[in-house]
C-alpha cells in the first residue's frame, strides 16, 4: 500500500498568507508562524506559492520562503513567478525540495528541460489547471519532472491512466469525504487545498480518521516492527537521542509500541513516560519538539538510536542536553567542525545585533557590503598566493581568515551554515 500525505498550502501575497487565487482574503499576517503551526499539527509537507506582482515583491516572497523553510522541519515545495532558470535557482536556494513550474503558461514548456538538466528532474514539479495540459505536454512532464500538482479537481481515474508520476491534488473542497476519495486514488501521494490548509484543522486527528478508512498515513516507513525489538524487563525499548547535525547526545528515554507507532506516524519523537504511565510527545507542552531524521537499531535489537532535529532544548532544566554535568575527565575541547563554525557564526551574528566598541567585526558591518566583499576577495587572493609558497602552514592561516570574512558576509546576507550544509548535501 502506498503512503499518503496531508500537505497544507500557503499562498503569499504582499508578505501575507491569503486564502486562494481569486480571493485576497488574508488568512494570516504571520506567514512563518502559520507554516510552523502546520508543521506542529502534523503536516507531512508544505506547498508555498508566490502570487506577487512586482520584482520587489517577488524578492520579498523568496526571502520569506527561506525563513519559512528554516522554521519548519518538513519538506517544502515552492513556486510562483518562475520565468527563467534564475527563478528556479532562487526557489531551490530557499531550501525548497522542489520548484514548481506553472504549466498553464507556455513559457514553462520551454523552461522545463533546461532547469531539469541543470538541477535534476527530482527537484522539479509542475502544476496543472486542466486535463488538456497534461495530455498535450505529457512527454515533457514525464521526462523532466518528478511530481504533478493538480490545481482543483480533475478526472483522477483518467489521469492515473496517463502518467505514473506521483500527484498532489490541491482542491477547494471542504468536504472530508471528498478528501478521502482523493487519497484513495492510485497515484495520488497527497492532498492539499482549502480544508487541509484550514488553520483550525487538527491534522493529526484527520490522519487518524484517514487511517480508520483504510488509508495508510505515515510520514516515516520502518523496516522493523516493534515486535522485532527485544524489550527490557518493563516491556519498554530504551532510546538514545542524538542531535543529527552535531552528533551530541541529548537525552535517553523509553518507548512502548504506541509511542513507537506514533513516532512513525507523526515524525515527532514520542516516548512512554514511566512516571506518568502514559504516552509523551516530546515538546507537546514546551514547544521543544524533536523531529525525526533517522532511527537505527543496535546489533541486539534492544536499543534504538534516534537522530533528531531538536527545537529549543532537550532537558527540562533548560540545558540543551540532559548530559550537561561532567563528573569525570578533563575539560572537553570540542573540535567538531560544524560546532566550531556555528559557534563563530553565532559570535559574528551577536556582534551585528549587539555592537561592541572596537570590534573588527562591527567595523566591517558599519562599512557595509562593499567593504565586506572587498575583504572576501582579498582573502581569496591571499589563499592563492599562500598555495604557491612551500610552507603549507600559510594556507591554513589564509583559509581561516577567508572563512571568517565569508561568515561575516553570510550573516550580512542572512545565509546560515545549515543553508550551506543542506545545499552541499543536496548536491
TrEMBL record:
A Gene Ontology cellular-component term: cytoplasm
Source species: Mediterraneibacter gnavus (strain CC55_001C)
Gene Ontology BP annotations: L-histidine biosynthetic process
HAMAP family attached to this UniProt entry: HisE, HisI, HisIE
Location of the protein in the cell: Cytoplasm
EC number: 3.5.4.19, 3.6.1.31
Region (Phosphoribosyl-AMP cyclohydrolase): 1-340
Stated name of the protein: Histidine biosynthesis bifunctional protein HisIE
Main location class: cytoplasm
Keywords: Amino-acid biosynthesis, ATP-binding, Cytoplasm, Histidine biosynthesis, Hydrolase, Multifunctional enzyme, Nucleotide-binding
Domain Phosphoribosyl-AMP cyclohydrolase: 251-324
Pathway connected to this protein: Amino-acid biosynthesis; L-histidine biosynthesis; L-histidine from 5-phospho-alpha-D-ribose 1-diphosphate: step 3/9; Amino-acid biosynthesis; L-histidine biosynthesis; L-histidine from 5-phospho-alpha-D-ribose 1-diphosphate: step 2/9
InterPro entries: Aldolase_TIM (IPR013785), His_biosynth (IPR006062), His_synth_HisIE (IPR023019), HisE (IPR008179), PRA-CH (IPR026660), PRib-ATP_PPHydrolase-like (IPR021130), PRib_AMP_CycHydrolase_dom (IPR002496), PRib_AMP_CycHydrolase_sf (IPR038019)
Catalysis: reaction(s): 1-(5-phospho-beta-D-ribosyl)-ATP + H2O = 1-(5-phospho-beta-D-ribosyl)-5'-AMP + diphosphate + H(+); 1-(5-phospho-beta-D-ribosyl)-5'-AMP + H2O = 1-(5-phospho-beta-D-ribosyl)-5-[(5-phospho-beta-D-ribosylamino)methylideneamino]imidazole-4-carboxamide
NCBIfam families with a match to the protein in the record: histidine_hisI, PRK00051.1, PRK02759.1
Location of region: Phosphoribosyl-ATP pyrophosphohydrolase: 341-427
Protein family: In the C-terminal section; belongs to the PRA-PH family. In the N-terminal section; belongs to the PRA-CH family.
Gene Ontology molecular functions: ATP binding; phosphoribosyl-AMP cyclohydrolase activity; phosphoribosyl-ATP diphosphatase activity
SUPFAM superfamilies: all-alpha NTP pyrophosphatases, HisI-like, Ribulose-phoshate binding barrel
EC top class, as a word: hydrolase
Amino acid at each position: 500500500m502506498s503512503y499518503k500525505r496531508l500537505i497544507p498550502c500557503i499562498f503569499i501575497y504582499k508578505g501575507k498568507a491569503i486564502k486562494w487565487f481569486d480571493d485576497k482574503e488574508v488568512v494570516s499576517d504571520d506567514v512563518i508562524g502559520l507554516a510552523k503551526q502546520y508543521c506542529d499539527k502534523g503536516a507531512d509537507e508544505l506547498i508555498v506559492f508566490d502570487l506577487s506582482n512586482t520584482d520587489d515583491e517577488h524578492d520579498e516572497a523568496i526571502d520569506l520562503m527561506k525563513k519559512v523553510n528554516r522554521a519548519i522541519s518538513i519538506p517544502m515545495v515552492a513556486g510562483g513567478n518562475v520565468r527563467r532558470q534564475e527563478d528556479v535557482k532562487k526557489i531551490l536556494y530557499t531550501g525548497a525540495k522542489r520548484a514548481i513550474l506553472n504549466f498553464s503558461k507556455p513559457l514553462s514548456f520551454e523552461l522545463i528541460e533546461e532547469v531539469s538538466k541543470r538541477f535534476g528532474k527530482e527537484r522539479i514539479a509542475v502544476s496543472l489547471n486542466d486535463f488538456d495540459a497534461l495530455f498535450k505536454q505529457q512527454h515533457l512532464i514525464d521526462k523532466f519532472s518528478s511530481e504533478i500538482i493538480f490545481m482543483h479537481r480533475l478526472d483522477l481515474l483518467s489521469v492515473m491512466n496517463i502518467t505514473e508520476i506521483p500527484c498532489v491534488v490541491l482542491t477547494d473542497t471542504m468536504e472530508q469525504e471528498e478528501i478521502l476519495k482523493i487519497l484513495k486514488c492510485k497515484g495520488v501521494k497527497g492532498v492539499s487545498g482549502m480544508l487541509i490548509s484550514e488553520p483550525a484543522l487538527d491534522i493529526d486527528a484527520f490522519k487518524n480518521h484517514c487511517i480508520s478508512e483504510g488509508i495508510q498515513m505515515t510520514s516515516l516507513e520502518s523496516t522493523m516492527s516493534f515486535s522485532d525489538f527485544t524489550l527490557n524487563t518493563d516491556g519498554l525499548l530504551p532510546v538514545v537521542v542524538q542531535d543529527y547535525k552535531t552528533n551530541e547526545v541529548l537525552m535517553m528515554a523509553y518507548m512502548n509500541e504506541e509511542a513507537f507507532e506514533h513516532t512513525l506516524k507523526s515524525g515527532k519523537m514520542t516516548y512512554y513516560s514511566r512516571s506518568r504511565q502514559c504516552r509523551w510527545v516530546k515538546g507537546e507542552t514546551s514547544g521543544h519538539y524533536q523531529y525525526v531524521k533517522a532511527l537505527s537499531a543496535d546489533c541486539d535489537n534492544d536499543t534504538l538510536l534516534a537522530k533528531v532535529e531538536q527545537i529549543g532544548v532537550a532537558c527540562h532544566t533548560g540545558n540543551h542536553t540532559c548530559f550537561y554535568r561532567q563528573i569525570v575527565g578533563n575539560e572537553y575541547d570540542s573540535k567538531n567542525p560544524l560546532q566550531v563554525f556555528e559557534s563563530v557564526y553565532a559570535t559574528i551574528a551577536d556582534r551585528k545585533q549587539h555592537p561592541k566598541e572596537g570590534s573588527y567585526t562591527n567595523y566591517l558591518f558599519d562599512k557595509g557590503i562593499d567593504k565586506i566583499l572587498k575583504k572576501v576577495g582579498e582573502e581569496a587572493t591571499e589563499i592563492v598566493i599562500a598555495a604557491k609558497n612551500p610552507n603549507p602552514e600559510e594556507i591554513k592561516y589564509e583559509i581561516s581568515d577567508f572563512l571568517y570574512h565569508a561568515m561575516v558576509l553570510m550573516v550580512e546576507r542572512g545565509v546560515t551554515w545549515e543553508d550551506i550544509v543542506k545545499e552541499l548535501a543536496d548536491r
